[in-house]
């Protein structure tokens, strides 16, 4: 491997091939956000690498900055996950186990934080009245597009008064008013008698969704007292209207009653309905389900699952994840999400007709034309040669970020041998590797599948990565203008 200083170049011209790299803004490279230069770096199987020094600015450098900066201005490296961005990426929310991000963090558990990239301030989100710190772990934060609200789940019992159910609940923090509100309650205000959550359980994703203005929140709960006549004994998908104070179940059977899953003598259980997200206006909820009675085409028995769209205005449910021929439901679903404008659905799935190798690919479904598209597309226009997963989209659905183990999606990925992050511009059909990027200290390598997102305006990406200094995790934000002409 060849290492030099002053100019960035790769022998294959990977990072700017065919795109405009006109930005010369290097303001993001401050002593607070990046370490001093050290050329002793191991980047694996790269043929040629040039490290860029801050003293020699170049238009070929992407704007990248670190978000895990503590109250003392020092980098706080520790476990991090679940980053998300407000519309213009001014605000970043994420979970961290670091105790030096804010003063007075003494609970020795993971907390939820928001960093204001403009003001350079960071605040802790999972706090109770008078700013009291949580007495239980919190997880799965997601920030609203306007940056005012952050939704998360927590096992803490001191975030709101009257929390005595002894299970995880879903909360929203109003950053403007400084108030934490419990979401996983019934329309009459009764607390749930079962866990409501985000995160993972037995390899199932329990994400939480929030509309752009924070009015609507969708979540998974095993409680059976959030709505009337909930008798299925399984996890369901709910929507809370914070303005009207109403809680509604959306994972309902075709008769409007309970959904169910049964295989032989096995009935129900966690993971039947999971991974919800909601459009910005609150009308559409997309979720994954293994229930056997959501629509007329479903069959009772050992059904393996699919992705569904609930129209809350019309009170109807339809299946989205079918094969390109319109038959045979796609298997192995996860990470179903809907764009803010409610028109683009993204999900990962194992489609044997498309990818006989038995790994998952990323798909986009355009509601207004009723058509699914393969999103994890190779340079040659075919399928990826590795597994692709966990898509998120911009509010208009034009930019999709996803993880992949493939090395045939972009010229820059040809010599990459780790799972990495890609962004695809659907209108142009261009895919770019975005987390193997040059910085003043070398290359940033992505390290967590669940640790990335895209800003609603499609101009920034955020991801969790272990930089070259050590294996501990950091939160990085990168401008996508470096990768795409606009």
Residue ranges: pLDDT <50 for 5 or more in a row?
A: 1-60
Distance between the termini: 34 Å
Look at the structure and give the mean pLDDT.
Answer: 79
Enumerate how many helices there are, as a single number.
0
Cα-atom Rg, whole angstroms?
22 Å
Beta-strand content: 35-45%
Fraction of residues in H or I helices: under 10%
SS-based structural class?
mainly beta
Biggest sheet record: 6 strands, antiparallel
Structural features, described:
Helix content is 0%, strand content 36%. The chain is mainly beta and 486 residues long. The strands form ten sheets. Strands 3, 33, 34, 35, 36 and 37 form a six-stranded antiparallel sheet that branches. The radius of gyration is 22 Å and the shape is globular. It starts with a strand and ends in a 7-residue tail after the last strand. The N terminus is likely disordered.
Features:
six-stranded antiparallel beta sheet, 486 residues, mainly beta, five-stranded antiparallel beta sheet, disordered N terminus, 36% strand
Outline the secondary-structure elements:
Layout: E1 2-5, E2 48-51, E3 64-66, E4 80-85, E5 91-96, E6 111-116, E7 121-124, E8 138-143, E9 149-154, E10 169-174, E11 179-182, E12 196-197, E13 200-201, E14 204-205, E15 209-210, E16 216-221, E17 236-241, E18 246-249, E19 262-263, E20 266-267, E21 273-278, E22 284-289, E23 306-311, E24 316-319, E25 331-338, E26 344-350, E27 361-366, E28 371-374, E29 388-393, E30 399-404, E31 420-425, E32 430-433, E33 437-439, E34 442-446, E35 452-454, E36 460-466, E37 473-479
Parallel strand pairs: 1-2
Antiparallel strand pairs: 3-37, 4-5, 5-6, 6-7, 8-9, 9-10, 10-11, 12-16, 13-14, 15-16, 16-17, 17-18, 19-20, 21-22, 22-23, 23-24, 25-26, 26-27, 27-28, 29-30, 30-31, 31-32, 33-34, 34-36, 35-36, 36-37
């Amino acid at each position: 491997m060849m290492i030099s200083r002053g100019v960035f170049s790769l022998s294959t011209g990977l990072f700017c091939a065919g795109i405009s790299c006109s930005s010369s803004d290097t303001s993001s490279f401050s002593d607070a956000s990046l370490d001093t230069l050290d050329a002793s770096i191991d980047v694996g199987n790269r043929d040629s690498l040039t490290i860029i020094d801050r003293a020699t600015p170049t238009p070929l450098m992407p704007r990248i900055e670190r978000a895990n900066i503590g109250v003392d201005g020092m980098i706080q490296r520790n476990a991090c996950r679940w980053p998300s961005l407000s519309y213009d990426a001014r605000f970043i929310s994420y979970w961290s186990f670091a105790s030096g991000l804010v003063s007075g963090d003494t609970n020795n558990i993971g907390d939820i934080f928001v960093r204001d990239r403009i003001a350079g301030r960071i605040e802790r989100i999972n706090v109770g009245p008078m700013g009291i710190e949580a007495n239980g772990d919190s997880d799965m934060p997601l920030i609203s597009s306007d940056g005012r609200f952050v939704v998360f789940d927590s096992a803490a019992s001191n975030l709101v008064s009257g929390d005595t159910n002894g299970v995880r609940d879903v909360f929203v923090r109003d950053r403007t008013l400084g108030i934490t509100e419990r979401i996983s309650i019934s329309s009459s205000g009764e607390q749930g008698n079962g866990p409501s959550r985000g995160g993972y359980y037995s390899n199932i994703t329990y994400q939480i969704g929030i509309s752009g203005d924070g009015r609507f929140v969708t979540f998974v709960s095993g409680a059976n007292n959030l709505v009337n006549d909930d008798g299925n004994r399984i996890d369901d998908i709910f929507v809370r209207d914070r303005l009207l104070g109403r809680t509604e179940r959306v994972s309902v059977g075709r008769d409007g009653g309970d959904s169910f899953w049964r295989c032989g003598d096995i009935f129900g259980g966690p993971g039947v309905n999971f991974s919800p997200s909601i459009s910005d206006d609150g009308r559409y909820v997309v979720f994954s389900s293994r229930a056997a009675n959501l629509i007329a085409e479903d069959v009772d028995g050992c059904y393996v699952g699919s992705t569904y769209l609930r129209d809350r205005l019309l009170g109807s449910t339809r299946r989205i994840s079918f094969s390109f021929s319109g038959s045979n439901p796609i298997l192995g679903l996860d990470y179903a999400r809907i764009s803010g404008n409610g028109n683009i659905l993204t999900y990962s799935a194992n489609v044997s007709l498309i990818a006989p190798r038995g790994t998952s690919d990323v798909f986009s479904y355009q509601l207004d034309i009723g058509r699914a598209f393969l999103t994890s597309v190779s340079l040659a226009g075919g399928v990826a040669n590795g597994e692709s997963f966990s898509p998120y989209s911009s509010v208009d659905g034009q930019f999709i970020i996803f993880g992949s183990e493939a090395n045939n999606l972009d010229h820059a990925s040809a010599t990459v041998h780790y799972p990495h992050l890609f962004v695809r511009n659907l209108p142009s059909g261009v895919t770019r590797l975005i987390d193997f990027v040059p910085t003043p200290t070398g290359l940033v390598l992505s390290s967590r599948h669940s640790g990335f997102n895209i800003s609603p305006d499609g101009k920034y990406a955020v991801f969790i990565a272990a930089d070259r200094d050590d294996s501990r995790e950091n939160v990085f934000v990168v401008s996508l203008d470096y990768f795409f002409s606009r």
